[in-house]
Request: fold
Amino acid sequence: MPKAPANKYAKIVKLITAVAIAELAGIVGSFFTVSSIPTWYAALNKPGLNPPSWVFAPVWTMLFLFMGIAVYLVWVRPDIKTRQRRIALSVFGVQLVLNTLWSILFFGLRNPFVAFIEIIILWLAILATIVLFHKISRPAAWLLVPYILWVSFASYLNFSLWRLNSSDPPGFVACTMEAKLCPDGTAVGRTGPRCEFAPCP
Reply:
């Protein structure tokens, strides 16, 4: 009888640990993201489907939460061989590192082209994780579906941002990376041939 509460406590600890590790990856990536959004990112030419900057933080927070729960479901599955579980969790760890690396490449180094190549590799790693998780826990695999859908959309945005900002048109003038605060709390940068501030959304 005393073992049941202890086992329940151990599962709670594992759940908190799994979610914390996933969210930590997002926190590390945010160090490279936050400073670039109101300056470099605000000044980029953006595609029509580009969402407002404030959307990304809550979406990623939720996706990392789903990732953590998925890892927990794989971690505590009792009837799975240790080797199979280890491989699945290792592949998950690889994609988590690639996720953080994308933020470093895109926002930290401000290199959309290299980031686009990397995000394709990330997408493949997520797909491999889903396949491996599905063999252990179908709910865990389904929890990663919103993640791969969002990364698919992020890949489109990454590619579009690279193409829209990869070449300088004739008469291009390099503008300073200043930013203007808009009434809604967002920021816009200087752009165009006269380096004027972009209009507020």
Remarks:
- Residues 3-166 form a domain with the Ferritin fold (CATH 1.20.1260.100).
- Confidence is low (pLDDT under 50) at residues 169-173.
- The first helix runs from residue 3 to 33.
